[in-house]
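JOB MANIFEST
job_type = single_chain_structure
chain_count = 1
residues = 209
[input]
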Amino acid sequence: MTRIRIRLNGYANSSTNLGPELGDRVPPGQHLAKGFPVLTYGETPSVSPSNWQFKVWGLVQEEKSFTWEDFMAMPQTDFTADFHCVTTWSKLDVQWTGVKVTDFMQSIQLSPNAVHVMEHCYGGYTTNIAMEDFLREENFFAHTLFGEPLPPEHGGPLRLVVPHLYAWKSAKWINGLEFLNKQELGFWERNGYHERGEPWAEERYSSQY
């Protein structure tokens, strides 16, 4: 089992009054959360691992489907990463276990025209991400949170985690990736959120374009 600690510092954020040891880890406009807040739009899907399926399609050489057993057979990694929600809270040193995106992508042959990804989720939720943001070494699919199976309210049985972007890009209940030759906006991006969502630049809303 590989263990990775992810530390993505931006610049000192004195407005949070956290002190220098934490101020460079909490982006502008954020505060440290008590506990691990849950924010969900609509119903929380309930999908058992035995019924869960993950699909890949679009600009790939071959469309593929993966079962829970397929994901569990891939290399497993422990991650410690900070987590930043667009609603202004942050949680530091969140401990996850899962599959690195770069390890998963060893199973996929992309078309050279693929430049963007649409994340698809149980419940019909979608969010978009550029390929250069998606394929970073620190991104992963998480199935375990603080040593326990990822609960449904936090996106279980599986969610994507993209530590360098706001948490809505870390799609909960993920069940598929669609590779595209251009950017298409997902659910929150169509409803006023920024197309990228970088916390240190406070890319919260589409009005900032």
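[summary]
The domain at 2-6+27-32+51-208 is CATH 3.90.420.10 (Sulfite Oxidase; Chain A, domain 2).
The first helix runs from residue 20 to 23.
exit_status = 0
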